[in-house]
Design a protein that fits this description.
There is one protein chain. The chain is of the alpha+beta class. It has one domain: Nuclear Transport Factor 2, Chain: A, CATH 3.10.450.50. It is about 35% helix and about 30% strand. It contains 5 helices and 6 strands, in the order ααββαββββαα. It has a 6-stranded mixed beta sheet. The chain is globular and about 45 Å long.
Length: about 190
């Protein structure tokens, strides 16, 4: 079974340090690096092809279930923030889930206000090698689980639906990469 590569998905290899004893497989490295790109506001459909169609993304503001909901969540970072900076982090577990500690500073577009978020990110996968896909990503701010109240869960689910109506997502990998090449040529 062949292994996915960073070049295949146009991902920069991650420079996030690993905790002692943590060793990611090649497939885990590619998936982790792609998600780290997402957290810096650099989503692409090619990287999102590493996600299962039925995958789930959740954080204290959102529960996005399925490709139609989680894809706009990542593109929404570009729309909402003028600057996203990783302040630190570490890969703390190579199991299933893969676990990351991240510290990220977000600058809100138009306002210039900044917010720093300490996250414990858990990434569940399915499959192996080139068939490995993201099944679930859970982002716990300050390593706290969102309070599970009916109202809060309803609002998180609504956010997952509303964002896809507000954020433009490219129609295909080819369209996205063609647009990117044109922008580089300007």
């Amino acid at each position: 079974m062949s292994q996915p590569t960073h070049e295949q998905y146009k991902i920069q290899p991650t420079s996030l340090p690993t905790a002692p004893g943590v060793t990611l497989s090649q497939a885990q490295q590619v998936i982790t690096a792609s998600i780290l790109d997402f957290y810096l506001g650099r989503p692409t459909l090619r990287k999102l092809s590493l996600w299962a169609d039925t995958a789930v993304f959740s954080d204290p503001l959102t529960t996005a279930e399925g490709r139609a909901q989680y894809t706009p969540q990542w593109y929404g970072l570009q729309a909402a923030f003028s600057n996203i900076e990783r302040l630190g982090g570490q890969i703390t577990s190579d199991g299933n889930p893969i676990e990351l500690d991240l510290k990220t500073r977000y600058t809100v577009k138009g306002l210039g206000s900044q917010q720093t978020v300490d996250s414990k990110v858990r990434i569940w996968t399915e499959g192996e090698g080139e068939d490995m896909r993201v099944r679930r990503v859970e982002d716990r701010w300050d390593d706290r689980s969102p309070q599970d109240t009916t109202f809060k869960n309803a609002m998180r689910g609504l956010n997952g639906v509303v964002v896809r109506k507000l954020v433009t997502v490219p129609k295909s990998i080819e369209e996205e990469e063609e647009k990117e090449e044109k922008e580089k040529g300007l």
